[in-house]
Design a protein that fits this description.
The complex is a heterodimer.
Chain A lengths: L2 E5 L2 E2 L2 E2 L1 H10 L4 E8 L3 H11 L4 E6 L7 H14 L3 E5 L2 H14 L3 E9 L2 E6 L4 E7 L5 E4 L14 E4 L10 E7 L13 E5 L9 H11 L2 E4 L1 H5 L20 E5 L5 H4 L7 E6 L12 E4 L2 H16 L1
Parallel strand pairs in A: 1-4, 1-6, 4-5, 5-11, 6-10, 7-10, 13-14, 13-15, 15-16, 16-17
Antiparallel strand pairs in A: 2-3, 7-8, 8-9
Helix pairs in contact in A: 3-4, 5-8
Chain B lengths: L1 E5 L2 E3 L21 E3 L1 H16 L5 E7 L5 H10 L3 E5 L9 H13 L6 E5 L10 H9 L3 E11 L2 E8 L2 E8 L2 E5 L11 H7 L4 E4 L18 E8 L7 E4 L4 H11 L4
Parallel strand pairs in B: 1-4, 1-6, 4-5, 5-11, 6-10, 7-10
Antiparallel strand pairs in B: 2-3, 7-8, 8-9
Helix pairs in contact in B: 2-5, 3-4
Classes of the chains: A alpha/beta, B alpha/beta.
Bound molecules: flavin-adenine dinucleotide and adenosine monophosphate.
Amino acid sequence: MAEVLVLVDHLDGENKKSTYELLTAARTVGEPSAVVVGPAGTAAGLAEGLRAHGAAKIYAAETDSAEFLTPQVSVLESLVEQVDPVAVLISASADGKEIAGRLAVRTGSALLADAVAVSPTGVTHSVFGGAYIAEAKANTGHPVITLRAGSVEIEQAEGAGAEETVAVPASGRSATVISREPIVGGDRPELTEASVVVAGGRGVGSADDFAIVEGLADVLGAAVGASRAAVDSGYYPHQFQVGQTGKTVSPQLYIALGISGAIQHRAGMQTSKTIIAVNKDSEAPIFEIADLGVVGDLFKVAPQLQEEIAKRKA
Amino acid sequence: MKIVVLVKQVPDTYSERQLSDSDHTLDRDATDAVLDEINERAVEAALQLKEGDGGDSTVTVVTMGPDRATDAIRKALSMGADAAVHLSDEALHGSDAVQTARALAKVLGTVEGFDLVLAGNEASDGRAAAVPAMVADVLGLPALTHAREIAIEGSTVRVKRETDDGVTELTAELPAVVSVGEKINEPRYPSFKGIMAAKKKPVTTLSLTDAGLDASEVGLANALSSVTSSQPKPPKSAGEKFEDEGDGGSKIAAYLVAQKLI
Ligand SMILES: Cc1cc2nc3c(=O)[nH]c(=O)nc-3n(C[C@H](O)[C@H](O)[C@H](O)COP(=O)(O)OP(=O)(O)OC[C@H]3O[C@@H](n4cnc5c(N)ncnc54)[C@H](O)[C@@H]3O)c2cc1C
Ligand SMILES: Nc1ncnc2c1ncn2[C@@H]1O[C@H](COP(=O)(O)O)[C@@H](O)[C@H]1O
């Protein structure tokens, strides 16, 4: 079977969940070869997980280069030339989108960005915040596909995972990394993976009062989200923003507290299975898409709901 | 310093955006077109760098888009940019990200001696979040993306890059391409004086040939990828709504139980 290159997404010596999603998706179009780019010793630590998710080969490109994303692009570029893969799969993260774009211009490949499903004939996209579903295909060999996190159900499969060392080609001009501060995830589930999200907007009124949103989230085992207005007002950190320019979430349950439901916010959450909104203003647009809407003060409704759920759990 | 800002006209995100039935491209007639908000921030960043420079720098905006993208150009000029270059040609319709990046790289080739190219990190319509890095790659320049802070120190640029994964500090020698994230600044409103002055600022319109491009390199028919079908998803409709009478929280809990969500 033809090879599919999968760029391994890893952090602190561990495969990210998105890597297993990529390997699962890759198996629908060919035989996955995992490509590991990282400092010396990285591949050895990741190999077991990669094999358990069907990697037939593991290309290890180890380098201490401080060049920003360029090693990933150059390694993939030389592998594309060498093995002529049926496709290259990369996570649709900020880094992944950039690596994919650069690779596509270098190899003259179609760029199929932010796919939610992959098949031998092409990909599926969800556009304008889920308002449209579109199918797309590549008109070139070795298309470069980025896959949106959380869109594929991970399946295990044994792969031979034979390791092969590959060189990191010298590159031209690149940005250099001076320092990195990865975001440390808290105890709550990851926003894009959570099955329940409780989000707060400007109506929450202050950073301190976001404790109300967090309190409700915690009894539900939920992730916390925020509107852009809440983020801009400094109530909650940027990485929790949901919407057009924030994260796209599609949980089983989305609870919006003090969020008006502007179209750009809806673009990031309107595909949630069940939506519950609490807002003082009965005309707030969030009610147009809420399965259950409560016109009321979030400072009264949310604590009562939290208490009721806690009671049931006890 | 010579600064170029890549700007794009997009459908207003405040309106319902649509894909056209005929070729599945963006239906640009269905919605109002505006300068993408993220590009207002890129223009603002350029103007702040110019102001920090004692005004010695020049800011040129570059766009590839249909005729009416001149409105987006005017907006950038009225904010304070000095000049503009507009690549406009029927043949560009339906170009994909790879073609766009190559075309923009050609247009940048017509702007002599630029030091810094600024762009938005992600366009609100296509959301490829890749074009700036792709343009940089075509030109062999470093790409410093998703900037939350930009500092120029002599001939180097330093950027604080913020994404969902964290903060990374990057540096590179100029010339370089920098894309900005939405937390970089609050764009200024054009003043009346700015709007009047914009009318007199030079806008160079380029055809494909002017930019050194061939029709076979751009456009829907030559795209490296094609959208084969598109379908609107029925919008979610409203369910029940009630006024809180002191038992709103309990009622939600009862609903969650009934729906087996808790
Ligand atoms: C290009 C672009 C991209 C954007 N991207 C995003 C994005 O990614 N995410 C995003 O969220 N927005 C985004 N926006 C901004 C968006 O247009 C709105 O401004 C934003 O979503 C508003 O946030 P909000 O609902 O929290 O605030 P508001 O619109 O101010 O709404 C606050 C709501 O809280 C209610 N309220 C106040 N007090 C209480 C109370 N005690 N109890 C109950 N309800 C109360 C009010 O009735 C009101 O409805 C974008 C805008 C643009 C132009
Ligand atoms: N047609 C275009 N003309 C000018 N700049 C563009 C164009 N397309 C993309 N860009 C720039 O690239 C940024 C990111 O766009 P994208 O990669 O398409 O999400 C935009 O904010 C612009 O700065």
